[in-house]
Amino acid sequence: MYLTTEEEGILNGEAGPVAERMFRLLVRLGEIYGADKMIPVGSVQVAGVSYKSIEEPGTTFLEDIAAQGAKVKVLTFLNPAGMDLEDWKKLGFPEAFAKNQMRIMNAFKQMGIVITATCTPYLAGNLPRFREHIAWSESSAISFSNSVIGARTNREGGPSALAAAICGKTPNYGFHRWEERQPSIKINVETDLVFDSDFGALGYTLGKQIKNKIPYFTGIKNADTDQLKALGAAMAASGAVALYHVEGLTPEADLVKKDNLETITVTKKDLQDAYAKLNTGKEPDIVILGCPHASLREIGSVAAKVQGKHLRKPLWVCTSRMMKEAADRMGYTQTIEKAGGHIVADTCMVVSPIEDMGFKTTGVTSGKAANYLPGFCKQSVCFANLDALVEAIS
Fold it and tell me: Taking CA atoms, which of 44, 120, 367, 368 is between 20 and 30 Å from 11?
């Protein structure tokens, strides 16, 4: 792998011990995956933010490198934290957990990282351009940026993304190269996708089948960005899909080679089977939406569904702080709170300690959340469309 004189200097410790350590990690990754050089990145998104995920060892590591003066070189955002950073007490998050979570946020802030804790950074001020090289680490954000925006990122881990942020570079391999972005399997969808949860169910069943292949979809008649977000998130969670193409919808679909591909056909029965597999609970103790974080359009839809209702069970709509502020201005927050729900910023059900807050069965519309909740949060799951979930707790 070719390194510039400046990059050799970083390896020799000329930029300090933290930069040397981080750049050594990037060089090693490049060597493993056959990178020819380092390339600059326009932005970074770092995972490993919730205290539930990284616990004391990860927290101490972050505090240590922050104390050594580590600073990021490019715009860097964070994945969701383990709680709402402002309203955690009102929502019932444990105080000891909150104290440790704030240690993590303070360490990131010291490094110059924007503490916008969200898995949808593209909705909160970090929108990469088409074909821009980035280093993002949250699975749904990777999928969305690669597929819907057409930016270029590999599936970074928390440490490699942080290293890219501190060094401003990443090794040139994988999805950064055009030849690695070609589809390897064709998916013919022969059923109507009506609800957002249908896209989650489709993503869940396909991720299980195709693992880390790059699918090319035909038969999806129309889909907005929220539905594409749901599709990619579920495929990344149940499999390891980091890039997909949809005929007529995604920016690279008309450019890639799609001849002589193995074809899988998805029918209505496949979706019904996915719903059946994901449903492990009977009645939700709480309904949590926004995995990935809800857009303003999705929050508005929830507000319209619950307007005038009195919910019997808690309802959380998880989103970024910026989307919550927009919802406040639009009156959506007031409508949802009047019905008995909450807009919860900075976190989501997967990385927050909901199992320690008395909840055992969670209702979701997200295929990603339905896949993760049983293992990560010891939850039974009620997976359904928004209308059905609102009715279940009204």
Answer: 44
Scan for tokens 């959340």, then name that residue.
Answer: 369
Q: Indicate the helix (H) or strand (E) that contains 76.
A: strand 75-78
145 and 197, same domain (yes or no): no
158-167 helix and 17-33 helix, angle to the nearest 10 degrees: 120
pTM of the entire predicted model = 0.97
Same domain? 63 vs 166: yes
Q: Which residue, 38, 251, 301, is CA-closest to 144? A: 251
216: containing domain: 182-276
pLDDT tens for the 394 residues of the chain, in order: 999 999 999 999 999 999 999 999 999 999 999 999 999 999 999 999 999 999 999 999 999 999 999 999 999 999 999 999 999 999 999 999 999 999 999 999 999 999 999 999 999 999 999 999 999 999 999 999 999 999 999 999 999 999 999 999 999 999 999 999 999 999 999 999 999 999 999 999 999 999 999 999 999 999 999 999 999 999 999 999 999 999 999 999 999 999 999 999 999 999 999 999 999 999 999 999 999 999 999 999 999 999 999 999 999 999 999 999 999 999 999 999 999 999 999 999 999 999 999 999 999 999 999 999 999 999 999 999 999 999 999 9
Q: Are residues 286 and 248 in the same domain?
A: no
